[in-house]
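Good morning C.,

I know you're traveling, so I'll keep this short. The sequence:
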Amino acid sequence: METDYVFPGRRVAAVSMILGPVLLLTGTLLRSQFNFFFPDQLRAMSDHPALMTAAYTCFLAGNVLLWPAIVALATKIGRTRPALAAWGGLFVLFGLFERTFHAGIDQAALGLAGRRGPGFAESVVSESYQNLHLFSFLSFTIMFGWYVLAFAAYRAKALGVVQSIGLASMGLLPLGVLKGTEIVSIIGTAGLCVALVPAGVRALLESPKPSRRSVLLTAVAVPVLGALAFASSMG
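The tokens, ready to paste straight into the viewer:
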């Protein structure tokens, strides 16, 4: 039996619209007391490991959790503006992939700072900062994608003026490895909350009540996934 289901599902997209922006803003605020450039970020990791780990983990989690929200928004835009939806959605997703790639480098560098000291980590990062890789050629998507998607959302009436501006403000977020927080970082992540969180809450409230089968499946799946997550961390 065919349905009108669209991957990854309305509830998943709604949760993504809420948690993704909130986690990004949380991570941005947690590291806001430290200077922006990577030597200061590495020193902060050495001096405040728990705080910096929480900051970078929250930011990474928010970045990864955003993809269902972007897919859902692009799908909504695509009903009337398919070309703009494709370009904006793909550019933003590529940008999210690149930030995840950067987060892997951040994790390695912060680990070095904690184990070998910030001076050693700084020398490694500074010597390899300009190395070319695949994402070197896609850095423009990190910023430019948000502008295209925001324009598309406004043109398709998927978001209002204020929400579209909030979405576009994510293009202000600095890109690159070991970037801390500037005022534009807070503006961008707060703007994303304005753009997506109300839509996510509204989608959750308007979603039909889950079936008993879905509730039981979720009750079984959650502890199983938790066990798999724990096992994954062991190697």
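Safe travels,
E.
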